[in-house]
Amino acid sequence: MLSAFAQAFRTPDLRRKLLFTLGIMAIFRLGSFIPAPGVSYSNVQQCAAAAGGADLLGLINLFSGGALLQLSIFALGIMPYITASIITQLLRVVIPRFEVLHKEGQAGQAKLTQYTRYLTIFLAVLQSTTIITVASSGNLFPGCALPIFPDESAWTLVLTILTMTAGTGLIMWLGELITERGVGNGMSLLILTSIAASFPSAMWSIAGGDNGVAKFLAVVILILLITLLVVFVEQSQRRIPVQYAKRMVGRRMYGGSSTYIPLKINMAGVIPVIFASSLLALPTLAGQFGDATEGWVQWVSVNLADPGAPLYIAIYALLIIFFAYFYTSITFNPDEVADNMKRYGGFIPGIRAGRPTAEYLQYVISRITTAGALYLALVALIPTLAFVAMNIDQQAGFAFGGTSILIVVGVGLQTVKEIDSQLQQRHYEGFLR
């Protein structure tokens, strides 16, 4: 693998793409340390060291590479774009126009991408306003009396909102540049960069505590085992054989070939885990604005703020399973696949074309999704329970949680496959053998 990686850098065209990708990733990390206008950087550092992020803000802070709790120009990270992309996909079920655009090919996809960009900017304005309001009220770092905004004039707050929104637009543009001129999916690589940036500090916090060396080794072994499980499942697929009948088009004979439909065990990816984490964090975030002596705030603190609470674990697992089924039903349409097969003369051996094919595909996908949903719940819960048992702080739990491992391994596999395909196009031996 190392020799193939060196061979990739010896190829001029591929070397330019790799260096361009690495350069964009470096610019993205640099922007995470530039404070937004009006923010007291020294006060933010002191408050962040004393309090740390948690709950929903901790999840957003993970995807921003720590930029959120530093209130930098890239504080929102890639989260507005992720949310906008998910909303656009979900709207295909609600708005028929979006489904029509999805079926129109490249022109329709370009229009949907444009809608996603507009929605990203809108969400960036909304999220930046919320974060700045929370920060100015002192709830971003509970217990810290230092002012985040020494000058809380309306102009300063508006300028900060505009800066963070512009930073989100710049991140979106940088991701598209990587996709067009670099290697791999730009948005996915930026997410990978954000998560990987939190690994050193999380490892340091684990190794520096009580029984640090033992906990450090235990976490490393746990991560390796989960990584092996993720790689095995993400590479697994159910192949549905498809046979195409011969047909005459003009004077030429087409068809007569056999292929297969690859159905991944985990077709929903990491989306169900992100959805479940976000929904479970909302009550805790709302509790920060309430009085700590109120009954509902105490109940939320005991049952929904503690990752080791039985109710938290049960709700978390059920939400992951639900969203796995829900998202798979949106992204994979058996009726559409069956119609396309019928249109081009394809059929599954032993299954009639049309409605029987759609019912068979639905039967297979429902059972595959069961295994995928249980796998996602297992990967998401094992690190959480292990970190709670080892008394590891929540920041490290976010950095090495199931969501982080799924994203890092999934994006890594996707990028390695793309580099391998480009090496094979140039008749070189690739990464995968």
From TrEMBL:
Protein task: The central subunit of the protein translocation channel SecYEG. Consists of two halves formed by TMs 1-5 and 6-10. These two domains form a lateral gate at the front which open onto the bilayer between TMs 2 and 7, and are clamped together by SecE at the back. The channel is closed by both a pore ring composed of hydrophobic SecY resides and a short helix (helix 2A) on the extracellular side of the membrane which forms a plug. The plug probably moves laterally to allow the channel to open. The ring and the pore may move independently.
Keywords for the protein's UniProt record, in alphabetical order: Cell membrane, Membrane, Protein transport, Translocation, Transmembrane, Transmembrane helix, Transport
Principal place of residence: membrane
Cell compartment(s), UniProt: Cell membrane; Membrane
Known partners and oligomeric status: Component of the Sec protein translocase complex. Heterotrimer consisting of SecY, SecE and SecG subunits. The heterotrimers can form oligomers, although 1 heterotrimer is thought to be able to translocate proteins. Interacts with the ribosome. Interacts with SecDF, and other proteins may be involved. Interacts with SecA.
Cross-referenced InterPro entries: SecY, SecY/SEC61-alpha, SecY_CS, SecY_dom_sf
Transmembrane stretches, start-end: 18-36, 67-94, 115-135, 155-175, 187-207, 213-233, 309-327, 373-392, 398-416
Designated name of the protein: Protein translocase subunit SecY
Protein topology in the membrane: Multi-pass membrane protein
Top-level taxon of the source organism: Bacteria
A Pfam family that the UniProt record links to this protein: SecY
Originating gene: secY
Family per similarity comment: Belongs to the SecY/SEC61-alpha family.
NCBIfam families reported in the protein's UniProt record: 3a0501s007
